[in-house]
Amino acid sequence: MDEHPAPFDAETRRKLLRLxxxxxxxxxxxxxxxxxxxxxxxxxxxxxxxxxxxEQPYAYYFREALKERLSFFYALWLPECRGTRQNLAYxxxxxxxxxxxxxxxxxxxxxxxxxxTRVLLDANDxxxxxxxxxxxxRWMGFLDAYQAQKRTEVQALEEHIRALSASPRKPTPIRIxxxxxxxxxxxxxxxxxxxxxxxxxxxxxxxxxxxxxxxEYVDHQGMTAGRSWNLVFVFQSPDRPLWERMKYRTLPxxxxxxxFIPGGEFYSRHMGKWDSIVLGGLVNSQLLGxxxxxxxxxxxxxxxx
Length: 305
Prior knowledge:
Elements: H1 10-21, H2 23-32, H3 37-46, H4 58-69, H5 93-103, H6 123-129, H7 131-134, H8 136-156, H9 158-164, H10 173-184, E1 190-195, E2 200-206, E3 212-218, H11 220-224, E4 230-236, E5 253-256, H12 257-260, H13 265-268, H14 274-298
Helix pairs in contact: 1-4, 1-14, 3-8, 10-14
């Protein structure tokens, strides 16, 4: 049973779902701007097994899952929780079909990994997600391909990356704040909070009177340790106050690049290389800008940024 009322009116919920419908156009736009790593990920997922005739390609599954996520408020979307929510704005008949297959034991060939249907419903996705356990050599080959693709993208965007900022000795909060201002500011996002002492950096763009798109930089410890960084995307009313730090479960809708791009997490991994950090900032910001742009198209271009 739902514990919270719907945070948005019917029209806003419809616009959120439309963002999932627009995913092919968003991916095409990202390709046109030099970002193609997700194509490799989709290809690798499809290579995991030959699909039976009743299954759709991974890109379709990914879009259907996103569409449900965009109507799953105040909680993390999980297949095992799909039946606990009432009055969802969208419930995918295709995901119902995959869940029925899992319940019927059709995924028995996955062995012990069949239990992952609690969090994933596409069998190819499960095989891909467990590949490092079942065939680490092949998985390492995939990772090498992702790193090579990122190097290709960095080279293609080299002038843009250099224009943003010179490589610092380390990614300090001030440098990250400046980078985010540089990549998000031109896209209509304003800084709501730039606290470099506690390392809380929040930006937002008001999409219309009912909703604003926020992003918050999190996990600076992971950034400085040379592992990864992350931005959380938050949809909520422009009138609501800023949420408490890390209290994303109190928010109506908190997502990330991984929600919109297969393999988006690989853009977050940088291994201490500044060019890779900037690339991650660029792809996140371009995705945020495209989400705002698609929203504008639904509202006739009346963004309040």
